[in-house]
Specification:
Helix content is about 25%, strand content about 20%. By secondary structure, it is α+β, with helices and mostly antiparallel strands.
């Protein structure tokens, strides 16, 4: 991965991980080491500023929906990187690609949000090999192996499927339809030859491994965890809204369901030093987003650049019957990473629910010009598009982080 790539910048600003492919060849490994040695420390673009943001008053319409009171996420605000485009030939959308090159100057980035993750494709399990070799175009078979491959390709094309599980479901279907829309293809309910050909047009992209081996470290397993209580009063007593288990943390790290992670590693105790099979999430969008559209009918958030080109889509939960989302057009007014959550009781007193991935708004709050509304993360990413929201736009934590890194201050947010 070359020094100061556009991808490096976008990942750092988004608070996501860079995935470093560990080649079996010593020559490639030496090359990678040389490239890594040339990476400068990224510029810190996060301003430390306390800020209160009001979130909509609503009833608890689902187990993971917002608490029924006034909520105010507060934390350090995030400044936008300068608008910054990448030519299609500049960099691969998958972080593992050893052929990535870029001469572009990086925009501001915060290195403390950018851990380096090394993995290999040595001695892969038979299941991993089957998934990596899956080719729907040849078999026309939709099983878990081809399903995982399809989900990976959609994700790598910036059409998010939510938590990867290998199954064809409505989030995968929506991602496919967003891909079809972006590429001027016929919109269909099922995968077809035309769409598969477009998904697999980039041979370098298709060659990337979908499932890889990853060696667990102390930082992966010795994490702070918490049993999340039901009531706001009890939540406010916690030190942080941490992951409830190592498995939960790992599944979010690799953008997959907990059940799929366990199914791929039936004999693992998930201890430090264990080598496990994981999904390769690739890299997030690396273009500036100037407009997003929250589509209530499809429960999808569409992201556009300044040329009105559809560049990404994310499955989302947009409001509910009891607490609908607003209508019309608004703008992004504030961006907060790791927000807390203020619960206002009926008597007017307030409880501060601490930050963390299981905070009611997850790891991100992107506040809108319309008071009380925003785009945010979720403590339950596996239920995105299957749950209710108190009027806001809810994403998986990893999609919210990806969007946080590239959405511009003042970006347009449309509800339709």
């Amino acid at each position: 991965m070359p020094a100061k790539t556009n991808l490096h910048s976008a990942l750092a600003a988004a608070g996501l991980s860079t995935l470093l492919f560990v080649s079996q060849g010593s020559q490639a490994a030496d090359s990678i080491k040389q490239m890594l040695a040339s990476v400068d420390s990224a510029q810190n673009t996060y301003k430390k500023a306390a800020m209160d943001v009001t979130v909509k008053d609503a009833q608890n319409v689902a187990k993971t929906s917002e608490l029924s009171a006034l909520k105010e996420p507060t934390a350090q605000t995030v400044t936008s990187p300068s608008a910054h485009q990448t030519d299609a030939s500049d960099i691969s959308p998958v972080t593992t690609a050893p052929y990535q090159t870029s001469s572009s100057k990086t925009s501001g980035a915060n290195a403390r949000f950018l851990p380096t993750i090394s993995y290999t494709t040595d001695n892969l399990s038979q299941v991993a090999k089957q998934v990596n070799a899956a080719d729907w175009g040849k078999t026309k078979t939709l099983n878990r192996a081809t399903g995982t491959k399809i989900q990976a390709l959609l994700n790598w094309h910036q059409n998010g499927v939510g938590a990867v599980d290998g199954y064809w479901g409505k989030n995968t279907q929506k991602a496919m339809q967003a891909f079809q829309k972006a590429n001027n293809l016929t919109i269909s309910d099922q995968l077809n030859e035309e769409t598969w050909k477009a998904l697999t047009q980039d041979s370098k992209l298709v060659a990337q491994p979908v499932l890889v081996n990853y060696k667990l470290t102390d930082n992966d397993v010795f994490i702070k965890t918490a049993t999340i209580p039901e009531t706001a009063e009890e939540k406010a007593k916690l030190e942080g809204m941490y992951y409830q288990s190592v498995i939960e943390g790992l599944s979010e790290k690799f953008h997959m369901t907990q059940s799929y992670l366990k199914a791929l590693n039936p004999n693992s105790s998930f201890k430090s030093g264990d080598i496990i099979t994981v999904y390769n999430p690739g890299s997030p969008i690396n273009k500036a987003v100037s407009r997003v559209v929250a589509d209530k009918s499809t429960q999808t958030l569409y992201a556009y650049d300044d040329k009105n080109t559809l560049i990404a889509s994310y499955p989302t939960t947009v409001g509910s019957t009891a607490t609908p989302s607003p209508s019309g057009t608004h703008t992004v007014s504030v961006k907060v990473h790791e927000p807390n959550y203020t619960f206002t009781k009926e008597d007017g007193s307030k409880l501060i629910i601490p930050p963390g991935p299981n905070n009611p708004v997850g790891l991100v709050w992107i506040g809108l010009s319309k008071p009380s509304y925003g785009i945010h993360g979720s403590p339950d990413p596996e239920r995105i598009s299957r749950q209710a929201s108190a009027g806001c736009v809810r994403l998986t934590n990893w999609d919210a982080l990806a969007l946080l890194g590239v959405i511009q201050n003042g970006a347009t947010v449309e509800f339709k």
